[in-house]
Structures are given as C-alpha cells and as structure tokens.
Amino acid sequence: MNFSLARTSLIAEADLVGIAGERAVCDRRGVLYFPDLRLLAVSDLHLEKGSSLARRGALIPPYDTGATLLRLQAVIADYQPSIVISLGDSFHDGGGAERMHASFRERLEALISGRDWFWVAGNHDPEAPADLPGETVRELAIGSLLFRHEPTKERVEGEIAGHLHPCARIVQRGRSVRRRCFAGDGGRMIMPAFGAYTGSLNVLDRAYAGLFRLDTLMAYMLGAERIFAISRSMLRPG
Amino acid sequence: MTEQPRLAEQNATVALPEPFIRWFGEKGWSPRAHQIELLARAQAGQSVLLIAPTGAGKTLAGFMPSLTELANWPRRKPGQAHRGIHTLYISPLKALAVDIERNLGKPVEEIGLPVTIETRTGDTPSHKRQRQKLVPPDILLTTPEQLALLIAAPDARRFFEDLRYVVLDELHSLVTSKRGHLLALGLARLRSYVPGLQTIGLSATVAEPDELRRWLVGQNPSGAMAGLITVAGGARPDISILDSEQHVPWSGHSARYAIPEIYEAIKRHRTTLLFVNTRSQAELLFQELWRANEDSLPIALHHGSLDVGQRRRVEKAMGENALRAIVATSTLDLGIDWGDVDLVVHVGAPKGASRLAQRIGRANHRMDEPSKAILIPANRFEVLECRAALDANYLGAQDTPPLITGALDVLSQHVLGVACGAPFDADHLFEEVRSAAPYAGLARETFDRVVDFVATGGYALKNYERYARIRKTVGGLWRVSHPRVAQQYRLNVGTIVEMPELNVRYVRQGRGMAGRGGPVLGKIEEYFAETLRPGDNFLFAGKVLRFEGIRENECVVSNGAGANIIVPSYAGGKFPLSTYLADQVRGMLADSNRWQALPEQVADWLRLQKEKSVLPKRGDLLVETFPRGNRHYMVAYPFEGRLAHQTLGMLLTRRLERANARPLGFVATDYSLAVWALDDMAALFKAKKPSLAALFDEDMLGDDLEAWLNDSWMLKRTFRTCAVIAGLIEKRFPGQEKSGRQVTVSADLIYDVLRSHEPDHILLQATRTDASAGLLDVSRLAEMLSRVRGRIMHKHLEQISPLAVPIMLEIGKELVNGGANESLLMEAADLVEEAMGQR
Predict the structure, then answer these.
(1) ipTM of the complex
(2) Whole-number Å distance between alpha carbons of B191 and B186
C-alpha cells in the first residue's frame, strides 16, 4: 500500500478538529489521528471481554477480540501511523493478555511491530500486558498533548482521555438516535470506546460534570459513512 | 368430528360419589352432560380436551376427576408421610389462578371434601413456597414459569411422584406462544416422572382441535391424541355494527366520531365493557369518554402498562358492579369472571373472528342468554372488516392461529433447567423432548447443538470449554458444573421478555426533577420516554402528564395540560388481520350484492371506486398507479395485514431502486401498501423494466429478503428476546439499570459480532425463524405472492382513487425504518452547521 496516497485521500481539511492547538481527525471508526505527528490514538479496546464474562457464566460469543483487532488493523492500514497510543483498558482484565488466543496475539504483535506503541495503564489493566511488545506508561505527554486513561477533574488543556465511553443522543422527528461519540470542547477530548463489546455512557451524564466548557462542547457522533458534529444544545440525556 | 356428549343418565357407570350427588341436589342443579362425560373418560384413564364456551361450567368439569378421586382417598394417618401433589392446575394468568382458588374453594367446602388447594405464583412468599415443598397441597394452582422452576429443583421427582392430573386452563391461549413451548416441555418431564399421568385441557373454540389434542398427550406413538368433548355454543350473540349518523373517517384508529353514540349506549346499559386493540387506543378512548361524561358515570381504564394495584382496584370495583364502563385491552381477554356485563363495545376492527367471539363471550356469563355487542369501526376499511367478522361469528368460523414448531431458545432454557434438577442422559432427554408435540419433529443433530450451546455456547471457536455450565461426567450424564449456574437459571426462567421499561413516577407540579416519593402510575417503554423532552405533555393512565425527565429507571411526571398531547405508542399489542378475515373482506369487495349490508356511506365509497377505477376479484391483487404532486404512486391492496405489507414494502422498494425508479418511501396498513417514487412506475411496467409480474415475483423472498433481514432492527429486537430466553444474556431487572450502560454487553453488540463471525450459530438460526414467523410474517407474504401469480391487475389512473385515499392519508405519519437513522443525524448536523454560520 502507498502511504501518502492513503493518508491524503483520507483527510480533508474540513474534517480536522483543533485540540489545544494540534489538529486531529475524529475518524468515524472511533480513532483519533494527528497527521502532523503521525500519531494514532485508540481507547478502551477491552480485549478479551468475552472470555472475562464467560468466566462468570455468561457464554457470550468469543469473537470480540478478533472483531476488535480486525477493525484496528483496518485503521492502522489506512493511516500508517508511526506512533500508536492505546489509551487504557486495552484488556478487560489483568489476565486478558494471557488468555488471548495465539492467533490473535500474532495479529496484535504484527500491528505493534515497526511502530512506537504505548500501552497507557487503565483501571481494568493497571499492569503491563503479559508478554506483549510496547511500552507501558501511566500517562504520556507529546507536544501540547497529554494522553491518560481517566480524565482529571481540573482543567487540563490538551488532555486526551478515554475511560468514560461517551455516546450522544439526539431526537429528530420524534425518533431517537444514539451513537458513540468523541466529546471535546477544543481544550480536552474524550474518546469513544473502540472494543466490540463496549457499551457507552451519555455525555450529558453526571460522570462528565466539570470536564468541559459547556458553551463549546461538541459531540462528534460516529456515523456509517462520516462523523456528525452536534453541539451541546441539540443533545439529549439518557 | 364433534363428539356429542351423551346424557348423564346413560353414563350409569360413572361413579359420582354420594356427597357430590347430595351437593348438586341441595343446589337444585344436576351435573351437566359434559361434566359427567369428562369424568367418565378420565376415570377410564383417558386424557381429555374440553372445548366449551364461557359459562358452561368448564372449570368444575376440569376438576371433577380430581375432586371425586380425592373424596375417596383415605385420610393421612398421623406420622404417615405427606402425599405429593395430586393435581396441578396451570393457567396463563396469575390472576386466574387466584380466581380459581376462590371459585373452587366454595364447592369443596360445601361438599365437605378433605382437599387442600393452594396457589403458587411469582407473588407467593418464600416461606409459603418452602412449606409447600414439605407439605404439598392436594391441588396446586400455578403458572407455566412456576412449573419450570419446580422441575429445576433437586427434589422435583419426589414432589411430583403422586401426581395424577394436570388441568390446563385457557389452553387455546397458552399453546400459541413460547410459553406454550416451555409448558409442553414441562409436561413431557412430568410424564417421565409419572408415566400414567392424565391431562385435561380446557379451551375456547379453536380452528384445529386436533392440534390441541396432540399437544395434551405424549407423542409416542406420534400422532396420539387426547379425547375430545365439545359443548356447542350457547345462545347466538346479538352483534351489530354501529350505523353512525356521523361521517365515518377514511383513516385513523381513534373512532372519535362515534363517542356521543358510544356514551349513549353506556347510559342505556348496566355495565359496558369496551375493548380496543392497543393500549394507546385505550388511553385515547378513555380520555374522550370522560370529556363526554356529563353525568359523571363511573368509567374505568384497564391495560397491561398500568400499575398492578390500580388494575386490581378496577377488577374489584367491576366484580362489585360498581362501574358502568371499563375501557380495556387484551389483558381482560381471558376467562376471569367479571360482574354483570350486559354490553360489549368493540372499538376498532377485531382483526380475527375467533378473537371477536371470545371478547363478546365476556358479556353475560350465562351461556343460554345471548350476549350483546356493538362493533365500532374506526375507519372505512374497518367497516368492511367488522362486517366480515360479524358474518363469520354467525357462521361460527374459527381463525385461531396455527401452532408453530417448538422454539430452540426455549429448548435451551429447558435443557439447562432439567440439568439443574438432576443429571440427565442425552439419549433419554432427546426422546422425552420429542414426546412434546411442538418438538415432535426435532432432529437429533439440532438437539445436540442445543446441548452444546447450553454447555459452552456452542461456538465454532472452542474457547469456553473450561467455563462450561454443564459437563458430561464419566458415567455419561450431563451435570451442572457449579451451584451458581442453578441460581442464575432460577433468576432468568420464563419466556416473557419485556421491552426495557421505566416506572412512571408522579410528583407534584412545579417540583420538577427535585420532586420525590409520588405514586407509581405504571410502566412505559423506554424508547418512548426517550423521545420526550421536558415539558412535553402525554397521555397515560387516563391522565394528561407533563414529562419532567428520566431519573435512573424512572420517568418523572407531573400534572399536565395543553393542546399538543402525545399518545405513547407501544411496540406490542397490534394484531394483524387474520388470513380468514382478509379473504372475507376481499370477497365482500368483489361482490356488490353484499354491499347492502354496509352503511350507505361506505357502499357509496365502493361504488365510486368501481366507477373511477376498478374493484378486484376475490383472488386477484389490484395495483393502482397514479401521479400526484411531483411524485408517482403505486398502491397495492393485498389485505394480508400490516406486518406482511411492511416486509413486502421493504422488498419492493429494493427492487424498484435497482430498476432505477428512484423510490422515496412506502407506508403499509392492514389492507394496503403505497410506494412512492420520483420516476413513473407505470411506464416501467409498460416497458417491462420490470413488468409488474416480475416485480411481484416470489423470488424476492430469496436474496433480497436475506440481505435486508440481516440489517433489520427487527432482527436485532428478536435476537435480544431469543438471547434472554436461551440464557445467553440475563434479564434486566428494575434497579439494575443503575449499573450503567458501559458495564453490560448489549444484545445489539453481541448480535453484530456473532453475525459477522458465525452466521450459522444456533441462536441466529432461532432468531431468523422467529422473525420470519412473527415480525415479518414471511410465510403469509409467500402464500400471497404465490396466490396472485398471473392474477395481478394493474390500473393506471390520472389521479388518486377512492380506495387509495385511506393509505394516502397515512403517508408522513410514520418514518420508514432502515437507513433513516443516518439521515436524521445528517439533519441534526446540518442544523448545527447552519446555526454556527458555517454555511
């Protein structure tokens, strides 16, 4: 694949969102890409969530890790980033990396190889994933950006976080539409969860209180073909 | 086919114990022929199906074999072990079990029988349940779910070892759903404990009694049937269609035009029962009646979303004859004994002849007096439907739905339940399951896949062996792997999966979301509450309510007012037009001699249609095309019900898209279907690109259906139900929602992942089967397409026809599902851009 072609065809100037002076693409598949840094951020993969629940008796299909990796493979192939940051809760629990099927491990290793890969520690996976390449960090500062799993309550310009699994809801013509979303106010950005079995929490929920400047808060809702930028005044709770 | 019951005197062999004869004598009654007949057959060792109208003494008949036998049983001596259950009575409703306890208790006491009768339902306190296990009553009155729970208990075999009879009430209603499947499997289990077990089914009249007769007995040998006793219907009901002075509307379901006439009818009668088809209609009708209620007559409302306490109060007031009218939905359909109802008003078309007969049977619970009923059609097509139903009811026609093959999600639940009770041998269980009529055709391979699913999820990727719920042990028996599995099973038993609902909590006006502690008015579906915005007014529990907001699992409301009142729509409760009635309506359209029986304004409408367009022959399909505004319309009249029409609409628009007709949308009713497009469809048909016959070809049920189905929201909804019943995901209980959406895995996500990785998984198979039969009505569509082959009549018109007016009025009321969500997001995003001045 030809990199430069792949990158230019994917990014239109109008789609770029400003975060603390850096320009980023909110990709409709739920990843954040900084073209100037060739950096791709993805959050809350929750790999091996299926097997984690199966241990407690809910035998839900064991295909979530495969499905999540397949989608991750696709965005990495498109953007060809040199830095990848997995923003915490990469595995659903501490034993996830060990339980992972050998074939999935190989695919993940292939993705990591040749890039700077960072595992940010999350509440589900505070320790480094067992036997996987990549560097485990508590947080990571790059330029004016600060990557960490849980957003902090005080204002931090340039903070990119995950953890909350934001989604947004609108009602149009008496019909309700709910989608995962990026939530940002120009200073801080909270990323949607990427994992196949991850649920979501409305961006108007109490859990987000104090995180955003409300007058500039936007929800970038994930669509089938594109992102839909919706201002706070149009959002509904629930 | 009907076996006439012989007279009691001829059954001299029947042993009616002396106390019974004395009791009948004291009452001045004599046992009815069918009661004696049933007793005789039961004593001869037969299982029996009793079909009788309401008021025929069905219940007493059903218990006669048990009571007479128990009367002769020796009393238990002190120190002797307690006997197990003698008779199990199963009804679809908790309320019915409670009702029977009362009604049966009286004769038992008067005859002086040493018989104990108890109920066991979800409401029974746990100390009573435990006591019942130690000291079982002679007769236990319960529901299908409770039977499943009893079977899953380790002491099940001992508990049921003395069982003689199972009495199944309202069997016609039990057997048509997944609850019926669960019950059939439960019965099979009971038969394996007690090979000589006899069943007694009590049913209203059904189209195919033989299906029920097979259902009642073990299908080994296959085709075995219970005996049949049929009691002929009572006095012919006096049914009329309201011949209104007012203009009957073209479309709509409110029947608002008839309110003054309905109110007058209520005033002229003692107690009127008003039936409607949906809960929304019930709310509307109730509101309109109170607006007209100048005399402040006691008029009440009863439907399944209301708070239980409120429903019980209405039922009690009704039993005491304190009400003049009750507006009700199907919650009142079943055979609970009500007060002195002397008029049934059916608002809206009945959708099925049998349903109409059963509802009318509510009036005047004495079978030898005629019931009186008035049908109120809400629009013109409903006038035709009411007329057809009325003719059918006089003819005694039956159109109860056919039974469907046993569902695999229910079987999964049962297999786990059996394992919770005792370790099972797969070969034996397979034979046992196949002895239940709905599963008589089950293949061994399918059964094994179900067992595999119960054990480890049944996935091609064998990842979960170490987490198995049941395991095959050395002796070849399948055992539960952990006590926790049984606990989880008990919490999730049952086949009724509700849509996520919120409690409607009332607070004082002006308190907003801060208000606390008001009464709960009932439950409302979450997806409806989500479309409301604070300050919106909506109709619920007969009140206008102001929406304040959603707090955890509650929808907070206060007193509302205003003109723009929204009526909640509910997902369930819309019955499609029965095949039988549809055919009758087509017949009526085709035969102008029958129009004399119709109100003049409706007959005029049909005459006008004949003049301006054409009326199809009974077996034909009429398709009209006409331009209107800058669009082209196609209206078809299959009369196959809304579900089948929706499916047809989806498939036709896909095909028209491929033919570049640029279709924009469609709308479906019970009677017809309209598609509109930018291009002239009549010109396409003429040029045979495609021809009309090719457009309606049956091959649309192949790839097009498959492709559309996979992305359909209906399939996701069906999958959720199947996954809950099969035990893959847990039921949602009130209060659990607090844990938040990010913790649980939603059924939609599981569906997406499973579909792309293992499309042939047994649960997806079960989902597709369910959706085809239920929400999509594919079989009915298939029958229709094959029926009309070569019989499609195309009429091109310059303008809209009289028959097309009703459906044209529906356009714009409903958004077409599908890709529509994306366009709604687009609209919202565009609005934002506009407001921010970026365009």
Answers:
(1) 0.89
(2) 9
